[in-house]
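Subject line: Sequence and fold of a protein, written as structure tokens
Enclosed: The protein record, placed directly beneath this head.
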Amino acid sequence: MDTKAGKGFYATLRAAIADISENGFDTSGRLAFWTEQLRQAALLSLRSPRQMEEMLKFGLSSIYRRLIERGGIGRYHPGIPRFTLQRVQPHLRAELDKRILAAADLIKLNREQAVAKTLQRFQGWATSIPGGGSDTTDKREIAKEVRKALARLPFEERRVMIDQGHKFTANLSNILATNGGAIAMIWHSHWRQAGYDYREDHKERDGKVYAIRGNNWALAGGLMRAGAVGYYEDVTAVGEEVNCRCYAQYLYALRDLPKEMLTKKGAETLAHAKTVAA
């Protein structure tokens, strides 16, 4: 048995299938040999963990620079003071470091599963071939079936990076809202975007205003109430579910709330503030 691992995973797989087709599952040693050769070749065919971490770091750091250093996050927080963003920035930076590590661990786990699935499919096929081999094996079809998980891995890794980017954006925004004293949020869904596989319940939330529960000044002071859709904390957060691209726009002032969310006291306070300002 001559290894073809140095020539790449697909060459190794073809060699393994040819050898098993000719000899069959005659010894456990033959199966163990090719399983190990395929494992090594599969790992060599992938980007190194360091390369993947650098790609993640670059992608997430780009999001951080756009949203935090260049102020793009203001789109989700209209009216929030600049000094609030500056005060919260250390927490936001810590979120960047945490997200890079979490995403790297997730990609590592997906890779381990893909390699394991590939070896499992190969062993399942190999152990079905009787000693002495088989002349009826469709080698091309077997190779296609065995390598499915590994062939799909680059696509899955891109999806993970995109999804982690959405989650990172949502978490940065949530940290700023929590520290900035947001009183409510407007849910925004991309359900109108062609080709977007949206969730039906997220489409129903689009444009709805949710109160943010907690001892914020508006609730604690009796100036506002939860609207018909209730509290944000009672539903899944934007970006929480896999591949969710919804986003939140946070509200900080009574004047931005729908009238039905203002109490009598809140409406009077707002009217007085307008009178004073005039």
The longest helix spans residues 82-126.
